[in-house]
Design brief:
With about 110 residues, this protein is an alpha+beta fold. About 20% of the residues lie in helices and about 30% in strands. It is globular, with a radius of gyration of 14 Å.
Amino acid sequence: MNEPYTHAMHSRRCSESARSGLSAVGLRVQVQKRGVTYCARIAAPWTTPDGLDCWTVESTCPEVARFTVPVRRVRECGQADCSCAPTAAGVDRAKLAPHVSPAQAAAETGIRG
């Protein structure tokens, strides 16, 4: 994995997004957990009592789940080797989760069937 996506990075991104009128909510990330790579969205930051920064994420691929992992296991998508990034056809794998209807995925991606 490349550089971890830290709480400080997220804070900067949220500030920049707010200034430009955009939202950083639901930022796509790639997560390593027990040797499996997950496509997920940031749900919440969390810091353990002993000071370890973590992310609670909601994964969409390879399974739908919500879990918490240390920051060192999370990186922002958008890098060339991120399998969660939109494909050449413009389809976002993270938006094709079983709980998302085809109509909702089309509305969110701008792709019409």
